[in-house]
Design goal:
This protein has helices spanning 2-7, 12-19, 38-48, 54-61, 69-76, 80-89, 124-141, 143-146, 160-167, 196-218, 221-234, 241-247, 252-261, 266-282, 289-295, 301-312, 316-322, and strands at residues 99-104, 109-114, 147-151, 170-172, 178-182. The protein has 323 residues and is α+β, with helices and mostly antiparallel strands.
């Protein structure tokens, strides 16, 4: 993204000022830009390249090797189903917070993508992700006949013709989710150049990475249980540390010590779940901000607005309007 922005004339000092990162960090092999920085650089490019479909252009020139073993698993997967199911299972190798869902019903088959920051750049990153996956499908599975429709949850950022020219199929906006709709029989379509040994090797490596990342994220099985308990309490609008300790039959001090000893931070864990639920609830326009504040365990709407502004640099109303 940074290289592309530079090639399109976005000033280097402006990029580093906006991203607030050490320039040398980008030169480190295997360095990953924090996910929170992606919307910032997308918005920077949008302001520098008004009216241009730069996310689609970026998808054309991005080397597929940036996906590492995910790219290998996709390239050599026996069928479309194998490739998409692999993406669903090992999505954390691409992003800590992205969610992929394969929906196969009698009426339609779709591959849906969701990231909690989708709305922060007007859908630019979502367009880039869908365009990149479409390119993979086209190069390795003959996407011209495979993909029947592209769906985006946001409003079109540029003229409709740009999208239709790139995807070579129908493109709809203001839909429930971002993703690709596939021909019903498409999941069983074979790869152009399948290689079971290379596919299995890539999958084995991804499985190893997944296990290692799971340990890094949760620290231990105890921390995993704490996270599960947070989600269970959140389902009934309870986000306090005291209530969580009670659910786990621990004192608050013991709970804080347990989380800290396993590399976590209790407040951050509670806030992450609360933020994710807030963004999901804001997508339901039948709920007022006051209703949502109550469901998230806030005593008043003003406290919810302050928290949401801290999470996303947007007010709840601004976030909802961007959906």
């Amino acid at each position: 993204m940074v290289s592309y922005a530079l090639s399109r004339g976005v000033p280097l000092p402006e990029i580093f000022e906006k991203l607030n990162i050490d320039p040398m960090k980008l030169l480190e092999p295997g360095a990953k830009l924090p996910e929170d920085e992606f919307p910032k650089i997308m918005n920077l490019m949008a302001s520098s390249l008004p009216g241009e479909a730069f996310p689609l252009d970026l998808a054309k020139v991005t080397p597929l090797s940036v996906f590492g073993f995910v790219s290998s698993a996709l390239e050599f997967a026996p069928t479309v189903r194998d490739a998409l199911e692999m993406l669903v299972r090992y999505r954390s190798a691409l992003s800590d917070r992205v969610l992929f869902t394969l929906v196969d019903s009698e009426k339609r088959t779709s591959f849906q993508m969701y990231h909690p920051m989708d709305a922060l750049d007007g859908g630019a990153t979502a367009e880039f992700g869908c365009a990149l996956l479409y390119r993979v499908m086209k190069e390795w599975f003959d996407a011209n006949k495979l993909v029947t429709r592209i769906e985006f949850a946001h409003k079109p950022r540029v003229a409709q013709s740009h999208y239709e020219e790139f995807f070579e199929t129908e493109v709809l906006f203001n839909q429930p989710s971002n993703g690709l709709v596939l021909a019903h029989e498409a999941l069983d379509r074979p790869n152009r150049l399948p290689s079971k040994p290379l596919y299995e090797y890539a999958r084995a490596h991804l499985e190893r990475l997944s296990n290692e990342e799971g340990s890094a994220v949760f620290g231990s099985e105890q921390l995993r249980k704490v996270h599960d308990a947070i989600c269970e309490n959140a389902a009934v609008g309870e986000y306090s540390a005291v209530a969580l300790a009670k659910k786990l039959s621990m004192s608050l001090r013991s709970l804080q010590r347990l989380v800290s000893q396993n590399g976590g931070e209790l407040r951050e864990m509670l806030e992450n779940v609360r933020e994710a639920n807030a963004k999901k609830l804001l997508a339901n326009r039948d709920l007022s901000l006051s209703n949502i504040a109550h469901l998230l365990g806030y005593s008043e709407e003003r406290a919810f607005r302050r928290s949401f502004k801290r999470w996303s640099d947007l007010t709840p109303s601004q976030f909802r309007d961007s959906l």
